Amino acid sequence: MTQYPAEPFRIKMVEPIRLISPAERMIAMQRAGYNLFALKADEVFVDLLTDSGTGAMSQAQWAAIMEGDESYAGARSYFHLSETMKSIFGFEYFVPTHQGRAAENILTAILVKPGSLIPSNTHFDTTEGNIRARGGRPVNLAIDEAHDPTSHHPFKGNMDLDKLTAFIESTGAEKIPFGTIVITNNASGGQPVSLANIRAVSEIYHRYKIPFFIDCCRYAENAYFIKQREQGYANKSTHEIAREIFALADGAFMSAKKDAIVNIGGFLATRDPELHQTICNELIMREGFVTYGGLAGRDLDAMAVGLWEGLDEAYLAYRLGQTAYLANRLLEAGIPIVEPPGGHAVYLDAARLLPHIPQAEFPGQALAAALYLEGAVRGVEIGSVMFAYPDPDSGKMIHPHLELVRLAIPRRVYTQSHLDYVADSMVRVAEKRQTIRGYRITYAPRLMRHFTARFEPIP
Ligand code: F0G
Asked: What is the DSSP-derived secondary structure letter of residue 6?
């Protein structure tokens, strides 16, 4: 059996968790309208809903928190973060934001107009939501291998360069206020993007004078994949690789709740002084003054320390090893997943596991619900609940390529026994897959419906 490097830390504080009974789980699910977001966290045993803000902070981060400076303007904490930002990302300007989507909100409020088009490999849902909310259209141009869960392409997060060029040529660069790429590509399996691809994407955007922003919440995991898989990078540090990545971009937005291993935080960075000035004005209106941006001073200090810890290679070897371990346990049991495993999560392939449930009946939702009922394990649907939308021209429902359930692994939180428990629960679900039924939606809001939709099982 595959093993992974032992945790490069030991545990100094514990948080009790409790496994409630199958009958209690059924009552909880009915109350929640079968939406796992509506469960109480105490009703969950192993919570793999997200790796966002759910990591365990280190003693150095907690110590930094005690030194947080809560001055409204010009706090020490801001300057600590600023130094780290310069060293890792190298952008001239940045503002802290309370999380990633706050940065997206500010960027789209400034740059997206009705009719704007924003290309990416695969936008995350909040980025899509922010673009649509301003009347723009998100456009996904990942390579074809991204849609094939069995392809072992080493950089399945890559953007399709021909599609990107053809897209810009056909629509005209003036409709594209900025272009982006997500590293790693969360919505298509947490797959990495190669440095060669980032470089080529940067060249294409710049050829057409389109500003290039990187959505970089899992950039450190992406950098470690580059070190492992891309020729010429084995002897470079993840820090050097990060420097090389961000030197290619005009800006970046980050949810620090991932690779900065904090419970809250984010940033929006740019090289453009005029854009930065507009960002500052928006920030003050929506988030807070420019040296704290919606966070407490202590949060900025925790982020400054966590950004370095997220780049640590002993940590990353353990981290990606843990994800691969869970993936291998599932593969050994014949459970279809997106291969090879990505950085932060294992993605169950609900379409292949439950071929009797059509996309309109949400196979991913059905699988996520079944796994919770089986083992009180919470994952998240990444399929038609999250991404299907009516085509603005024809009104016809457009379904995503994949129907997945993501099991995201919080950083430094669960042990191998927890992962074995998850795998064992999933094996039991797979054994009874013929009995699993689809769902219909009984309530959904217009945008980002997966958070608050309610469902009922189809008899
Ligand atoms: N971009 C990507 C690629 C993300 O994965 C997320 C969040 C965001 C932006 C938004 O950041 O949550 O801080 O506002 N992803 C979380 C997840 C929620 O579960 O994957 P945020």
From this structure: P
Q: Which of 49, 108, 124 is the best mutation target for the ligand 1 pocket, counting ligand atoms within 8 Å of the beta carbon and taking the most?
A: 124
Secondary structure element (H or E) that encloses residue 82, with its range: helix 76-88
Ligand 1 touching residue 257 (CB < 6 A): yes
Q: Which residue has the tokens 């030991």?
A: 10
Taken in order of first residue, the domains within the chain and their CATH numbers are: 22-51+312-457 (3.90.1150.10), 59-309 (3.40.640.10)
* Strand runs labelled E in 98-243: 117-120, 137-140, 179-182, 212-215
CB of 409 closer than 6 angstroms to any ligand 1 atom: no
**CA separation for the pair 265, 59 (Å, rounded):** 18
**Span 233-282, pLDDT tens digits:** 999 999 999 999 999 999 999 999 999 999 999 999 999 999 999 999 99
Alpha-carbon distances, residue 440 vs 32, 33, 232, 262 (angstroms): 14, 11, 50, 36
Q: Would you call the peptide bond into 184 cis, given omega within 30 degrees of 0 as the criterion?
A: yes
Return mean pLDDT, the chain: 97
How remote is the CA of residue 257 from the centroid of ligand 1, in Å? 8
pTM: 0.96
**Number of neighbours of residue 431 by Cβ within 10 angstroms:** 11
CA of 369 to the centre of ligand 1 (A): 22
Inter-residue contact 382 to 404 (CB < 8 Å): yes
Interval 26-85: pLDDT, tens: 999 999 999 999 999 999 999 999 999 999 999 999 999 999 999 999 999 999 999 999
List the beta bridge partners of residue 214. Answer: 181, 252
Give 434-459 pLDDT, tens digit per residue: 999 999 999 999 878 999 999 999 99
Distance CA 222, CA 225 (A): 5
| Residue 99 Cβ contacting ligand 1 at under 6 Å | yes
Distance between Cα 125 and ligand 1 center (Å): 8
Q: Would you list the DSSP string of 377-443?
A: EE-EEESHHHH-EE-TTT--EE--S--EEEEE--TTT--HHHHHHHHHHHHHHHHTGGG---EEEEE
Separation of CA 217 and ligand 1 centre (Å): 7
3-class DSSP state of 333: coil
Listed residue (146, 179, 128, 211) closest to 398, CA to CA? 128
Q: What is the pLDDT of residues 197-240, one digit of tens each?
A: 999 999 999 999 999 999 999 999 999 999 999 999 999 999 99
